[in-house]
Specification:
Elements lengths: L6 H7 L9 H30 L10 H11 L1 H19 L6 E4 L5 E4 L6 E5 L8 H14 L3 E6 L9 H10 L3 E4 L2 H10 L9 E3 L4 H10 L4 E2 L7 E5 L6 H12 L6 E5 L5 H12 L10
Parallel strand pairs: 3-4, 3-6, 4-5, 6-7, 8-9
Antiparallel strand pairs: 1-2
Helix pairs in contact: 2-7, 2-8, 3-6, 4-5, 4-6, 5-6, 7-8, 9-10
């Protein structure tokens, strides 16, 4: 539900939000990770059936599934992907750091050596949602950095298939392997390995509270990028802001999770009503409108 707050209410609201204690969820995540460490692939399949409603024979996405996904999304989407890939690559190439060494006259050498990680696991939210953008934003930096093996984990739908748009994005980037697994169990598998899933050096990517807590628990045994959820967004806009764009930005984050928190701060008294109107107009066409 979207509400309009006064200045006084905002002073109270802007304090760091308390989304409650997660002791129950933390214990559940701990138990899931332990199960994956003990029972490996079978635990992953059991949890996929329990949480995603999919009965899997194999955790691995086959080449035929990638081809089928590319055919399903169509050439226009693939062209759009390539444009996005080109832009994102251009940005991240500018972030590349090179090794540096310096020798003193007394023979002492100083400097640092930069080498890429060997294996990275990218977690991509899935199920009913499609996040090809998350594939691009997590896989491309790893490729630019020189990571040789990039593994992707994303939960399947009840039919046991991965969203075709997510698969198409992964296919165009040439990831090493894609696994049909999600949630805390996927993070545990990437951190500690199974017969099918390799141990990686780093886990990246966003997810729900269970994924976030799992990344928190495995950190130290494996590197992570950050604790990325639940999503938070603060937009500061004045009377010149385009209401349709502001509404779209808010809903882009709101669709991620029922726990997402999104705020618009503005000195303009008319903008909130315009944004609410734009939200109501755009909402019916969005597949995740119930979460928003």
């Amino acid at each position: 539900m979207i509400k309009i707050y006064t200045r006084v209410e905002w002073e109270e609201l802007k304090q760091r939000r308390d989304i409650g204690s997660w002791e129950t969820q933390e214990k559940a995540v701990k138990d899931i990770i332990e199960e994956v460490r003990e029972r490996g692939d079978q635990a992953l399949k059991d949890y996929t059936l329990k949480f995603d409603g999919a009965s899997l024979k194999s955790l691995i996405v086959e080449d035929e599934e990638l081809k089928e996904a590319k055919d399903k999304v169509g050439p226009e989407f693939i062209r759009t992907l390539h444009r996005a890939i080109k832009n994102i690559e251009k940005y991240h190439r500018r972030q590349i750091r090179n090794s540096l060494f310096h020798s003193e006259k007394n023979g002492i050498m100083m400097g640092y050596l930069i080498i890429p990680l060997r294996k990275v696991g990218a977690y991509i939210p899935g199920g009913t949602a499609s996040y090809p953008s998350s594939v691009l934003m997590n896989v491309i930096p790893a490729k630019i950095a020189g990571v040789k093996e990039i593994y992707l984990a994303t939960p399947p739908g009840k039919d046991g298939k991965i969203n075709p748009y997510t698969l198409a994005a992964a296919g165009e980037l040439g990831v090493t392997q894609i696994f049909k697994m999600g949630g805390a169990q996927a993070v545990g598998a990437l951190a500690y390995g199974t017969d099918t899933v390799p141990v990686v050096d780093k886990i990246v990517g966003p997810g729900n509270i269970y994924v976030t807590l799992a990344k928190k628990q495995v950190y130290g045994d494996v590197d992570i990028d950050m604790l990325a959820g639940p999503s938070e967004l603060l937009i500061i806009a004045d009377s010149l802001a385009e209401p349709d764009f502001v509404a779209a930005d808010i809903m882009t984050q709101a669709e991620h999770d029922p726990l997402a928190a999104n705020y618009l701060v503005t000195p303009d008294r008319e903008l909130p009503d315009k944004v609410l109107k734009a939200v109501r107009e755009q909402l019916p066409s969005l597949s995740r409108r119930d979460i928003i």
